[in-house]
């Protein structure tokens, strides 16, 4: 929080205090110049940004934006961190995911900055019988191992415990997570499995392996199905509560049951929302533990993974920027462990370079940026504290909605949870289609001539449950149609951009139109004449003033030259010969899909 220095020096003492009303009047004056005649709170609202879950980011936060006391790191409600020391001692745990039994790749990661392993075992991953080979030469007393084995969790867990015993790893030294997650598996595949073996593993860990946890509460299936931050939080709480019920019925105390859970969340390139989500998650779980009669056991252990939803297949190099921001947010948000997905994750198995960049992302943030040296660096920000509180409220409401429907399992099986997630994704898809949520390298600044990045196919992931979505999927479909056309005909579909007037008049809209059409795989031709372009459609690009003078004449000339469809880049008007208008906020996906249809690109 903002505190005056001990000497009482206040740097703004010579300036008169400004009230909130005065600030709003100044904002209204600026907006009036841009044509918006609003006053007071409406002026401030005009600068606000709508988020999912009914939340809004306002342009100004002050000390009057009250939020509950976040407490201190290591103490309930654990908003500021699950441990008093945070990640100041060595930084967060750098956890890398492996899906193949390649011991060389595993060792390369551990020798170059990775501190724990996350292994996909069984279907879509490493065969249980090959687990020992994947961990060949790994010092299991130093490197924690986290399993993700789906239905094969019991044989995989028993195999890992056998390896501990075979290699002389003491039970009190073993660290990691056996990865049981029946509800997460059902969300992924639509198939459930018996909880009895999971309860037995939890009892074994509680009694003999103090450094091992038995269960993971994985919120990624709900994030990857298009869920919002609050839906991800609510689903994770419902999962955690369901596991607490099962474990306590199996004979564990509430404290023992809480100690068997690790929570897994997604980190996106929206850094403040990610920070607030992780802080809110700790607060909410602390509340669950308090209600269950174990307030001291409410310190949530968090494993954070950079979002698979945000990873693109086109121009994948931009994924490095996305994962860097997400990792920064995860670290600032207090994550205990962080997995950075390689930039080529969406294309198949990552190569050595991609894996190196992924692990070095955490290394640079910890060792060079010293991000972990400050506990909860966003704490005290009026914006972050308020966003944390609002997100916690929204997450708790969604958790209660799931509980009212009978719990997470019932919500999954009835289809209600999928419907809720689908509605959220449909709303977001509309923003993506209109480029209100831009995707650099895909919907904005696409590069049609880029050399495709090719990778070996990754093992097929379990499916059959909730869908997996990607931000780029609508544009990827358009680009795939263009690629097929290129392969079949030797050229991409084209559109001629007719620039009217001097560069100062047409450059802005020419650039806009070029970006728009290339996002759908349509090559924009700006040189020469329409007849020489090889295009069948055209788009006028210029200023409003020149449109009034020339648009109808040029549109008629283009139609006479063979243009079957003429666009105009700018606000919709009434120009004879113009068939459609493209402008900021138009449905780019619908426009591009219809254009490809007319061009015969199937």
From TrEMBL:
<dbReference type="InterPro" id="IPR016176">
    <property type="entry name" value="Cbl-dep_enz_cat"/>
</dbReference>
<keyword id="KW-0413">Isomerase</keyword>
<dbReference type="InterPro" id="IPR006099">
    <property type="entry name" value="MeMalonylCoA_mutase_a/b_cat"/>
</dbReference>
<feature type="domain" description="Methylmalonyl-CoA mutase alpha/beta chain catalytic">
    <location>
        <begin position="121"/>
        <end position="454"/>
    </location>
</feature>
<comment type="subunit">
    <text>Heterodimer of an alpha and a beta chain.</text>
</comment>
<protein>
    <recommendedName>
        <fullName>methylmalonyl-CoA mutase</fullName>
        <ecNumber>5.4.99.2</ecNumber>
    </recommendedName>
</protein>
<comment type="similarity">
    <text>Belongs to the methylmalonyl-CoA mutase family.</text>
</comment>
<keyword id="KW-0170">Cobalt</keyword>
<dbReference type="Pfam" id="PF01642">
    <property type="entry name" value="MM_CoA_mutase"/>
</dbReference>
<dbReference type="InterPro" id="IPR058549">
    <property type="entry name" value="MeMalonylCoA_mutase_a/b_site"/>
</dbReference>
<dbReference type="InterPro" id="IPR024067">
    <property type="entry name" value="Me-malonyl-CoA_mutase_sm_su_N"/>
</dbReference>
<keyword id="KW-0846">Cobalamin</keyword>
């Amino acid at each position: 929080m903002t505190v005056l220095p001990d000497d009482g020096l206040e740097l703004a003492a010579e300036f008169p205090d400004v009230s909130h009303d005065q600030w709003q009047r100044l904002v209204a004056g600026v907006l009036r110049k841009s044509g918006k005649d609003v006053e007071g709170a409406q002026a401030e609202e005009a600068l606000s940004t709508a988020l999912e879950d009914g939340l809004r980011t306002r342009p100004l936060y002050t000390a009057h934006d009250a939020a509950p006391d976040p407490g201190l790191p290591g103490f309930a409600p654990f908003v500021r961190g699950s441990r008093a020391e945070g990640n100041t001692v060595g930084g967060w745990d750098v956890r890398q995911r492996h899906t193949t039994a390649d011991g060389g790749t595993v060792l390369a990661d551990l020798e170059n900055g990775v501190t724990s392993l996350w292994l996909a075992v069984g279907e879509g991953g490493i065969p249980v019988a090959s687990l020992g080979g994947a961990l060949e030469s790994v010092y299991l007393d130093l490197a924690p191992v986290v399993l993700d084995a789906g239905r094969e969790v019991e044989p995989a867990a028993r195999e890992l415990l056998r390896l501990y015993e075979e290699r002389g790893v003491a039970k009190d030294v073993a660290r990691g997570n056996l990865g049981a997650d029946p509800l997460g598996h059902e969300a992924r595949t639509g198939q459930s499995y018996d909880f009895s073996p999971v309860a037995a593993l939890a009892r074994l860990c509680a009694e003999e392996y103090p450094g091992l946890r038995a269960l993971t509460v994985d919120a990624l299936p709900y994030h990857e199905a298009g869920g919002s931050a609050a839906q991800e939080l609510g689903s994770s709480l419902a999962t955690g509560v369901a596991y607490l019920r099962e474990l306590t019925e199996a004979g564990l105390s509430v404290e023992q049951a809480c100690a068997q859970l690790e929570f897994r969340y997604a980190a996106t390139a929206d850094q403040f929302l990610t920070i607030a989500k992780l802080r809110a998650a700790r607060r909410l779980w602390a509340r669950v533990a308090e209600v269950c009669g174990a307030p001291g056991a409410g310190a949530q252990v968090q494993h954070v993974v950079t979002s698979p939803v945000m990873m693109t297949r086109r121009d994948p190099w931009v994924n490095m920027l996305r994962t860097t921001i997400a990792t920064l947010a995860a670290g600032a948000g207090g994550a205990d462990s962080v997995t950075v997905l390689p930039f080529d994750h969406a294309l198949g198995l990552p190569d050595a370079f991609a894996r190196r960049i992924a692990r070095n992302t955490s290394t640079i943030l910890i060792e060079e940026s010293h991000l972990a040296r400050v506990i909860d660096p966003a704490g005290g920000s009026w914006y972050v504290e308020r966003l944390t509180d609002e997100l916690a409220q929204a997450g708790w409401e969604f958790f209660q909605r799931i509980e009212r429907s009978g719990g997470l399992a019932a919500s999954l099986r009835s289809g209600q949870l999928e419907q809720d997630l689908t509605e959220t994704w449909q709303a977001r898809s509309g923003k993506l289609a209109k480029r209100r949520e831009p995707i650099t390298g895909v919907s904005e600044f696409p590069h049609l001539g880029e050399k495709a990045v090719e990778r070996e196919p990754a093992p097929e992931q379990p499916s059959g449950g909730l869908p997996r979505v990607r931000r780029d999927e609508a544009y990827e479909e358009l680009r795939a149609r263009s690629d097929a056309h290129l392969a079949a005909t030797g050229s991409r579909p084209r559109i001629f951009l007719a620039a009217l007037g001097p560069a100062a008049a047409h450059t802005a809209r020419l650039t806009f139109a070029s970006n728009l059409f290339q996002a759908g795989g349509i090559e924009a031709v700006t040189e020469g004449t329409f007849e020489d372009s090889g295009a069948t459609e055209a788009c006028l690009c210029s200023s409003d003033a020149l449109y009034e003078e020339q648009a109808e004449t040029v549109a008629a000339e283009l139609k006479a030259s063979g243009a079957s469809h003429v666009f105009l880049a700018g606000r919709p008007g009434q120009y004879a010969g113009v068939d459609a208008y493209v402008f900021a906020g138009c449905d780019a996906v619908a426009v591009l899909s219809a254009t490809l249809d007319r061009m015969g690109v199937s």
